[in-house]
Amino acid sequence: MRYNFEWDPAKAKHNSRQHQVSFERATTVFSDANQLTIFDEDHSDDEERWLTLGLDRNGVLLVVVHTFKEINNSDVSTRIISARKATRREIKQYEEFNP
């Protein structure tokens, strides 16, 4: 699966200031073979939103909120909405998923 990433530049700048996580860095969690992707039912009224927990290129566990749109059988467009470092609870969830 190949990911094509997109995002709102203003939102990316705000996210980087607020959470110290750039969207460029956030894209690296999708290379984590042990990533955990969960449907975000609470925030999917207007569009399907997903949460992906994964290790970034530096081994830091991040939570990335995003949408998926299938382009074809091998390509997916992924719009990043936000990204931040995982909480203790999310770290535990990731570790339980990847014993």
The share of residues in helices is: 25-40%
What is the CATH topology descriptor? Nuclear Transport Factor 2, Chain: A
Q: Largest beta sheet: what is the strand line-up? A: 1-5-4-3-2
SSE ordering: EHHEEEEH
Instruction: Give the distance, in angstroms, between the N- and C-terminal Cα atoms.
Output: 24 Å
Describe this structure in words.
With 99 residues, the chain is of the alpha+beta class. It has a single domain, classed as Ribonuclease toxin, BrnT, of type II toxin-antitoxin system (Nuclear Transport Factor 2, Chain: A, Roll), CATH 3.10.450. It has three helices and five strands. The chain has a five-stranded mixed sheet. Strand 4 and strand 5 form a beta hairpin. The radius of gyration is 13 Å and the shape is globular. The model has no long low-confidence stretch (mean pLDDT 93).
Short description:
25% of the residues lie in helices and 36% in strands.
Name the features.
99 residues; alpha+beta; Nuclear Transport Factor 2, Chain: A; 5-stranded mixed sheet; 3 helices; 5 strands; 25% helix; 36% strand; globular
